[in-house]
Amino acid sequence: MRVLFLSTPQAKDLLPMVPLAWALRACGHDVRIATSGPALAVAGGLPVVDFGPADPGSAEAMPELAPGHRQMVWSRLHTVEEGWPVLGYIASTFADPMLRAAREFRPDLVVHSQLQGAGLLTAAALGVPAVEHGFGLLRTGRFYEELAGLVPATLQRLGMTAGDLAAVPRALIDIAPPSMVKAQEGAWPLRHLPYNGGGVVPEDLRLPPEGRARVAVTLGTMGLIGPDVDAEAFLGRFLPLLGELARRSDAEFVLIGIEPRHLDAAGFRGDEPISGVRYLRDWVPLRELLSGCTAILHQGGAGTMLNALDAGLPQLTVPAVAPNFMHSVLMRERGLGWWVTPDELDAAAVERLLADEDARVAAREVREEIATMPVPSSLVARLEELVR
Predict the structure, then answer these.
(1) What is the mean pLDDT of residues 354-377?
(2) Torsions phi, psi of 2, nearest 5?
(3) H helix or E strand, kind and range, residue 11
């Protein structure tokens, strides 16, 4: 069986799919990943093809959004349906490059990232089944049933109809813990096995420190703090705050994923810009680092949140983009922590994170729940049957 994994250039979309790709490969199936941009670096040693941009901006869809679409992305949306216009635009953007990659490989099955309409368009054009692979806590809803109405010009250009999309045999893989969000009808549950690429976690960070807290701090790219928030100004306020907390609470903070240029511009240089605040310049696998932490402060991204859930850590998030707000609300409802705006991120919020024993208990419960979910190898036979 020839299986093509299709992902946007965003690494967060591809990373959760790598364990399933390897499960198929380990069973002897021919697997290829097609993506572009930053996601090329996280294919996990599997065969990968760069589908490249069909035209300027295609490999990086988000920066090319129209003003109205950008406003949706940077808003606090409450449902996926509110963002359908953006998702339809992205589907149209990636349809041609993904279809080119698929026609070269001639797959029997397409596995695509969540809410990626171009994956279904590609499968329909080739006449093969499509499997949507979840990457977080969001729900697809009726997105694929409504996709034809969102991309009429693209369908016409490809010589396809709404009926062609409806005829595709489909399956949905859901990696969200059931206690955090209602299971999707007919979905195949799958345990999220964190894959973060390669890298070495410093030896002294592999185990939690005795008698003190260690908090991982990652904000994605600094652009995720928000389009109207100056990264250097934010760091200039935020890092001294962490330093003060480190002195008062006997805690330590480990910064990852922040570009050195932002730290330098904010006046913080070196691997420990402030006492008690350590900065890791090299890439480290997030889940491995979290094994040595007691809590995490992050931007609310799907991958970061799932890694933290798997590690059983309480969380404090600072969401800015639409999906991260939705993730953060679900996290708070489950009792795993809470979220704040950049302006609300102060010493009291971080101290609450360190002291919240109820969140710590809830996090352990979800970690145990994830451990009972089916592993990727258990889905191989179901995928084979779908193709048959």
Answers:
(1) 97
(2) -105, 120
(3) helix 11-14
Structure tokens given for 221: 């790219």
The whole-angstrom separation of Cα 190 and Cα 121 is: 24
From 160, 158, 173, select the one nearest 113 (Cα to Cα): 173
H or E stretch covering 112:
strand 109-113
Cα pseudo-dihedral 45, 47, 53, 58, rounded to 10: -60
Q: What pTM did the predictor assign?
A: 0.91
**pLDDT at position 39:** 87
CA–CA distance, 17 with 229 (Å, rounded to integer): 32
Q: Look at residues 204, 260, 229, 257 and name the one whose alpha carbon lies nearest to residue 344.
A: 229
The span from the first CA to the last CA of the chain, in angstroms, equals 10
Q: Are strands 48-50 and 30-35 parallel, antiparallel or unpaired?
A: parallel
Q: How many Cα atoms within 13 Å fall on the side-chain side of residue 151? A: 32
Q: Which residue in this structure is represented by tokens 């080739």?
A: 126
**What is the percentage of the chain residues whose pLDDT exceeds 70?**
92
Residue 330, CB-side half-sphere exposure with 13 Å CA sphere: 25
Query: What is the rounded CA–CA span in Å between residue 8 and residue 91?
Result: 10
Residues 6+ apart with CB under 8 A from 348: none
Q: Structural domains in the chain? A: 2-192+374-387 (3.40.50.2000), 203-371 (3.40.50.2000)
Residue 208 three-state SS: coil
